[in-house]
Amino acid sequence: MDKRIIYPQDNGIVAIVIPTPEYLAEHTIKDLVAKVVPEGKPHQIVDAADIPTDRTFRDAWEYTE
User: Is the pTM above the cut of 0.85?
Assistant: First the structure.
């Protein structure tokens, strides 16, 4: 699975969580969402290919639903 979890942090920067194969061998990505995304925060599970590879302006990325 080549998925990422994204959610907006309180400081406005988009958090990107990359699940490890070891974690996914024993848990689901939804288990990881419950573990790492603060309660009440919107989040999305996206394909890794949807994350820009150019990190030059990474802190300017915006979270949209």
Answer: yes
Rounded (10°) CA dihedral 41, 42, 48, 51:
-100
CA contacts within 13 A on the Cβ side of 40: 1
Q: Count of CB atoms within 10 A of residue 61's CB?
A: 16
Taking only the tens place, the pLDDT of each residue in 10-32 is 998 999 999 999 999 999 999 99
Return the closest-CA partner of residue 7 out of 22, 17, 20, 19: 17
Cα-trace Rg, the chain:
12
Q: Report how far Cα 55 is from the mean position of its chain's Cα atoms.
A: 15
Read off φ and ψ for residue 53, nearest 5 degrees.
Answer: -90, -20
Q: Which of 25, 35, 26, 30 is nearest to 45 (CA)?
A: 30
